[in-house]
Each structure stands twice: as C-alpha cells, then as structure tokens.
Amino acid sequence: MSSLTAEQSLQVALLHHGAGRMDQAERLYRDVLSQQPDHAAALNSLGVLAIQTGRPNQAVRLLQRAASIKPSAASYHCNLGEAHRHLGQIDEAIIEYRQAIRLQGDLAVAHSNLGIALCERNEVDAAIACYQKAISLQPTYADAYANLGSALTRKGQMDEAIAACRKAISLQPTGAPGYNNLGVALADRGDLESAIAAYRKAIELKSDYSDAHSNLCNAYAAIGESHKAIRAGQLAVKFAPHSVQAHWNLAVVLLRAGQFEAGWEEYEWRWAAYRRRGSLRFCDPSWDGSSLDGRTILLHAEQGLGDAIQFARYVPLVAQLGGKVIFECPPELFELFKSLDGGAELIANGSTLPHYDLHCPLMSLPRALKTRLDSIPANVPYLVADSHRVEAWKSIVKDSENRLKIGLAWAGKPTHTNDRNRSIDLSQLAPLSDCGAAFHSLQKVPLPARPPAGLELIDHANPIKDFAETAALIANLDLVVTVDTSVAHLSGALGKPTWVLLPHLADWRWLTHRTDSPYYPTMRLFRQRAPGDWSAVIQEVVEALRIRSVR
Length: 551
Known about the structure:
Elements: H1 6-18, H2 22-35, H3 40-52, H4 56-69, H5 74-86, H6 90-103, H7 108-120, H8 124-137, H9 142-155, H10 158-171, H11 176-188, H12 192-205, H13 210-222, H14 226-239, H15 244-256, H16 260-267, H17 270-277, E1 296-300, H18 305-311, H19 315-319, E2 324-329, H20 334-337, E3 345-348, E4 358-361, H21 365-368, H22 387-397, E5 405-409, H23 419-422, E6 438-441, E7 457-458, H24 467-475, E8 479-483, H25 486-493, E9 498-502, E10 523-527, H26 535-550
Parallel strand pairs: 1-2, 1-4, 2-3, 5-6, 5-8, 6-7, 8-9, 9-10
C-alpha cells in the first residue's frame, strides 16, 4: 500500500488522469479505495476513467456507488448518465442527466449531454434547445457548438450547422468533435472529399475517436473505397465496442462488399437499436441454425415489405429442417406469400400467435443458415401470381399493337430514410417515350395530372389492392423497370425480367459495381455514375430498350 494518505493519492491520481496516464491514475484511485472503500470522489473519478478506457459496465457500477454515497453531487449523476449512454441505455442516461440538472441548473455539460441522448431518441428539437441552453451558460463551450452543429445537420439546416461546427473549431482548434461534426454536415451536402479531410483531422487529434472512424467508414463507402471503409468501420468498433451505430455501419459496408460471414454477424447489432427504440418484440434469443428436432419455429418479417419479399426465399429452406414452421408476415403480403413452397403455417401481423419453441426474424436467416455470396438461394420464381388474378389482368394489359409491355415504378414511400436518393421524379422519365413501348404504372397511388409529354403511361392504382394483385399484373408484362422499392423484389421473386435503377451509393443488398444480382437471376442493375445523376441512367435504359425492341 502507498505511504500517501487517501487525499494525497487522490490528488496525484487526478494529475496523472489529466495528463492521460491512465494506468498510474487507476492504481492510485484504487489505492484510495483500499483505504476508504466509500470515497465518493475516488469512485466517481475511477468511473470516469472506466468510461474513457472503454469499460462502461464497470463505470456504471462505480458511478452508481458514488452517486448513492453523495446523491447531491450533480456531476456524479452526469457522469453516470454518460456511462449509461455508452452502453446504449438511453432512457437511463436521460434520467441521470435530468437529475444532474435538477441538482445544478447551471451545469452546462449536463445540458449538452442531455441533448446528445435526446438526439439518440430522435428528439432533435429538444436536443437543440439543450445545446443552446448549454451555450448560454458557457458561451465558450466548444463541444456544445459541435453538438448543435450535428443536430442542425439532422434538421437539414446546413448553413447553420456548418457555422456552429466552425465556431466549435475556432473556440477549440484541438477539439476533435468540431471537425467530426463538420464532416457530417459536409458529407450531407455531398462534399465527400472535404468531409473525409475533416474526419481525418478529428482522428489526428483523437486517434481513438470512434464516431469519426465510423463516419469516415460511411464516407469511404460513398466514394466506392470499400477496403478503406471496412478498415475505418473496424476501428470504430474497436474503440467503441458497445456502439450500435458503429456496428451497424460496419455491417453495411461488409455486406455491400460481399463479406457475408462477418457482415451477418455485425448485422445482428440491429437488435440493440430496436431495444433502444423500445420496438423489440421478441426478447428471447433467436434461432442460431441448430437442429430443430421437431420443434416449432416462428419466422417473422421485421423491416420493410421489400425486405420481407427478398428474404421469404428462406422460409421453404427452414421447412426442410425437420420442424414445424409458422411464418408471420405483413397483411399486405399475406395473399402473395400463400404461394411459397414448404407448407409453412402463414399468419398475418396482428393475429394471435400460436405456440412456438423458437423464433427467427427473416433477415437473421442468412446468418443462421451460413449464407455466403456464392450460396445465396436464388431459384426463381419462388413466388407465383394467382392464376385467376393473372387471367383477369390479361385483357386489361393486352396491347393491340403488340408493343413491349413494361411495368414502371419510379418512387417509394416518402417516409423511407433513403427515399430522396432512390426515388425519381416522373418528369425525368420523359426520354422513355421514344422507346415505342406501352408503360403500365405499378405505383399504388394515382398518376399526377400531367405525365411526361409523349409517355403513354397507363394508371392501375385503383385495381391494385395488395401485392398479390401487383404480382398478377406483373405476370402479364414483358419487363419491369423500377427504382429500388418493394416492386423490384416482387418482380425479381416472380422471375420476371427486371431492370433496377440504383443511386450512386446503393443499398448493401445490391453490392458494388455489379450489373447483375446474385439474389435475382432475371435482374439487371443500372447504376448512377455520380451522386444524383439520373439522366445518364435513364439514357442507358433507353438504349437498352431500343436494343431489346430490335430483337
């Protein structure tokens, strides 16, 4: 034991801690606690050190003890909030930050950290108010300006966001958060090279800055630098092993690069995000691919309708493994999924669930069944349109001039997070009018009053009531041309020739650089060469249609 008193050891420990000598600081904090196990200040400082060295679970235990010993210490509650936030326990973090503010209303760091947690819950306006309060209390608070810049970016107020980040940098030129959040704002504006430079500067200032590595991962992915993106993502996870966002970003770049074994493992981190949002439906662990031994397994759709269609291909495979399969699906897909092979018991979301022994979401099935890039189950069609509905549509789409009959989908749900990148304004499709084809709208909403001049586009919004109806319409067409929506997956699953128009940074399932899809053998991919440039894509489609018409 040291000859120093507890208070002397604490003062020396704080000096080491402030200088970044973490090992020496920790040894001395523990020396204090060996003399006085309930020394609140030492417990608090050791908890902060545990956060900084990537041990948030240990930090929570230490800081809870400190706060219980001295419940009136606002800073202890604020630090405990940070430990909870690093574990993804956002509700608990908010409780502690608010307790700190109740105890000390002028504690600027508590207001700023509360803003970060509220942003995690997508309460962006409330977060902005917290940052502004922190700045009013401490006008030179650089991190609060950096956080404000991040929140304003999420609001789409780009000029204000960049100004706030640059203010943070001017106040603290050696502060990494200002550069990191400036990078986010610049990337959102499409200036990826400047964003990358900002992230690199943040990492130069703080080499273990997980958020900057994670954002750099996204930026490299956006410019097609897959190897650099993966490396940045791996570093983000290394420096923040509990960060849901870091794991999610890494999962996306691994899957986009076709590195499925590692990608599916990282993709499981989405459950932590669901848990954080309070949207987790099944708390018990999901099926891991082990033998079913006659047990009943519940398979359930978890994300969008296109995701459900794409991964429904796995349901017949599970049905072959010796158990009983119950498949819960969205009501809009119920009639369509009746055509799946395998004899699964089909139920719609909202119905009472029968007894089951195991469960697995559709998008965890590739991991459970150890799917690699070269083993994707791609036998199409694995969905089939109802023959009676197909016959009913035959006379509707029959073309007296025997022209090519093409289904067209140009927009997804406006609420989709990536809709502004994937959807196309109908007016941009005007060049298709020169192709001599009859186009049939596959959109579920009526056509705008004035489609592009010369483009014969037949509206089928009213007869289309569900995906089984859309499938029957598609079965009567020669080709489907669509952006990245559920229609693409439906058409591909039906085995129909399908041309998909993709943004420059396409969703991970379309991989990179390919013009084909290993999921859908009858599909062809048309990719933007530059972000936002649909004109070249559409011209490529026009040329391909002319060649097809000649044949």
